[in-house]
Every structure is written in structure tokens, then in C-alpha cells.
Amino acid sequence: MRVLEEKEYFKVGGIEKRKADIRIIAATNKDLESEVKKGNFRDDLYFRLNVVKLLVPPLRDRKEDILPLFQFFAGRFNQQFNKGFLKVSEEAEERILAYPWRGNIRELRNAVERIVLLERGDTVLPKHLSFLGGKEGSSSEPFQFKPAIPSQGIVLEEVEKAYILEALKMKKGNKIQAAKLLGISRSALLYRMAKYKIK
Fold it and tell me: Please, what are the domains in the chain?
């Protein structure tokens, strides 16, 4: 409390007052307002900590963070276990993005640790993710696409560009969701967007 309020503290066993030039970041998965009312958390401490409140959505609602976090943890565990998983296949990426990650970053971290520890190779493949269970939201009946080509013909690249623009419009610019809608990886979508000069 002294550190938070006065920016001062004493070392354990010390008699000299010291200045603390720090900022505190505190995280919790509890509703602290409710805990304060129940008497489970000090109200004075809560009010001093609660200067700026940031609500972080669950990992499944910020899919753009999933693959970078996956790669980050893979690099860490590669070093720890002397392994060499350097990339993730497109099919594995789709499986990772489709999974709900109800345990958030902790579950993701544990999954990466398991893969790096138990599997071999330099690429994460769908078979390495079998412990995650079935693919979420997959349909038992595959979608059958029936193209209709007019007699005057088409320009295939224009058709592809039109589908990309429509997918981005439907998903309000969310590239991960648009890529999922098109059945390609985010990196493949970014390549095509660059190719067709789509901003």
C-alpha cells in the first residue's frame, strides 16, 4: 500500500526509505468488485490498483493472436527441449484456429509444449494435434460448389479477386475469418491480396 500510494518502501530489515519508480500491472480472472463486496479482497487495495482497467477478451475472440503465440511458445520449447519445430503446416494452422481454446493462453502453451516434447520433425502437422479432439464447427456434409461459366467465358483472376473482396466484406476486414471462409490460410490470403493490390 505504501508503494502504491506514496511510491516509497523500506527493504526488509532496512531503515532507509527508498523511492519506487515503478508501475504496477495486475491481472486476474476474478470479478474483483464482487470479491470486494464479499470481503474477499481489500477495498483500499482494489481502488489503488484500479486506475486503468483493461478487459482482455478470451483467446477464441482474438484469433489473430493465436498463431503468433503458438510460434512464440514453439520457439521457447524448441530451445528448452533441443527440438526444431520451425513452421506450422497450413492444415495444422486451420485446425489450431478452429479450436476454441477454452483454457486460453495457458491451454495453448500446454498444447505447444506437448507437441514439441513428444513429436519429431520440423513442421507441426494435423496429426500432432489429434489430442485436441474433433475439428470445431465442422459440417458432416461437405459443401458442393457448382460453378456456372457464361458462354463468353470468364477471367479467372477477376473471379478470385471478387470472392476475396466479398469474403473480406462479409467478415468486416477480418483476414483470419475471411481466409477461413475461403478455405485458405491467412498467409495465402495476404499473398493474393498483394497480388491483386487489395488494401
Answer: 2-49 (no CATH), 59-132 (1.10.8.60), 156-195 (1.10.10.60)
Question: What would the pLDDT profile of 58-113 be if each residue is shown by its tens digit?
Answer: 888 888 999 999 999 999 999 988 999 999 999 999 999 999 998 899 999 999 99
Query: Helix axis angle, 156-170 relative to 175-182, nearest 10°?
Result: 130
CB atoms within 10 A of CB 1: 9
Beta-carbon contacts of 131 under 8 Å, excluding residues fewer than 6 positions away, are 111, 114
Name the percent of the chain in helix, strand, coil, to the closest 5. Answer: 55, 5, 40
pLDDT higher than threshold 60 for residue 197: yes
Alpha carbon of residue 174 to chain centroid: 14
Using only C-alpha atoms, the chain has a radius of gyration, in whole angstroms, of 24
